[in-house]
Amino acid sequence: MADAYKTLYQDQLPNSVATLVTVGGAKSWIVKHISIVNNGPGNATFQLFRNGTTAAFAWSPPLMSIVDSGMAEWDGTEALASGETFAGVASVASQLTITITGDEVS
Questions:
Q1: Is there a cis peptide before residue 41, judged by omega within 30 degrees of 0?
Q2: What's the chain look like in SS3?
Q3: Ramachandran region, residue 53 (left: φ > 0; alpha: ψ -120 to 50; beta: rest)
Q4: 26 FRET partner, CA 20 to 30 A, in 18, 38, 43, 45?
Q5: pLDDT score at 60
Q6: Alpha carbon 66 to its chain's center
Q7: Model's pTM, two decimal places?
Q8: Which of 81, 59, 85, 84 minimizes the C-alpha distance to 72?
Q9: Structural domain boundaries of the chain?
Q10: What does CATH list as the number for 3-105?
């Protein structure tokens, strides 16, 4: 088994719920940190999902708010196996940048 601590995903959240990233075959992730930065202008809300895109799969509370030029962070441990996904949505497209870091195990 090889471990690689790295940026697992980084992009801007869309304004309709969509799968952001799928863990690749023969790999697993140990997510350690997620940051979401509001690039402005104005306040924005977001929600994240794990292994689905409906309320039943909500990973974060609904409609978390970030002020203009602010950020939200999560530190912890979340394990994802091959084929599992993170999805997300923001109130404004291309305004919130999400960065997921952790350990990719292959």
A1: yes
A2: CCEEEEEEEEEECCCCCEEEEECCCCCEEEEEEEEEEECCCCCEEEEEEECCCCHHHECCCCCEEECCCCEEEEEEEEEECCCCEEEEEECCCCCEEEEEEEEEEC
A3: alpha
A4: 18
A5: 78
A6: 15
A7: 0.93
A8: 59
A9: 3-105
A10: 2.60.120
Q: 102: which 2 tokens?
A: 């952790």
Number of alpha carbons in the 13 Å side-chain half-sphere of residue 92: 16
List pLDDT tens digits, range 27-51: 999 999 999 999 999 999 999 999 9
Structure tokens at 52: 């689905």
Tell me the pLDDT tens digit for each residue of 4-26: 999 999 999 999 999 999 999 99
